[in-house]
């Protein structure tokens, strides 16, 4: 199982985030200084580095009401990062493999 957790430092356009990729073999943290420049394929490459055997083409996260939202593109990734960066969010949502 693959689990990604995002922690936001500040607003998406001014500060970074940490992406934690959790796997049965262990965790890997990756800092992203400019989340607004992060692309969907960049994230897939990071996952592939941690889990070379995995074939990931999309992933999901839970929104504030518990709905699972699938991310398959740069646009959907930007929407997810905006959601995570929202200061009204009590905590970042977990990202689940898809």
Automatic annotation (TrEMBL):
Superkingdom classification of source: Eukaryota
Protein name listed in UniProt: PB1 domain-containing protein
The species this protein was found in: Anguilla anguilla (European freshwater eel)
PROSITE patterns reported in the protein's UniProt record: PB1
Keywords for this protein: Signal
InterPro entries documented for this protein: PB1-like, PB1_dom
Signal peptide per UniProt: 1-16
A Pfam cross-reference name: PB1
SUPFAM superfamilies: CAD & PB1 domains
Domain annotation PB1: ranges: 18-95
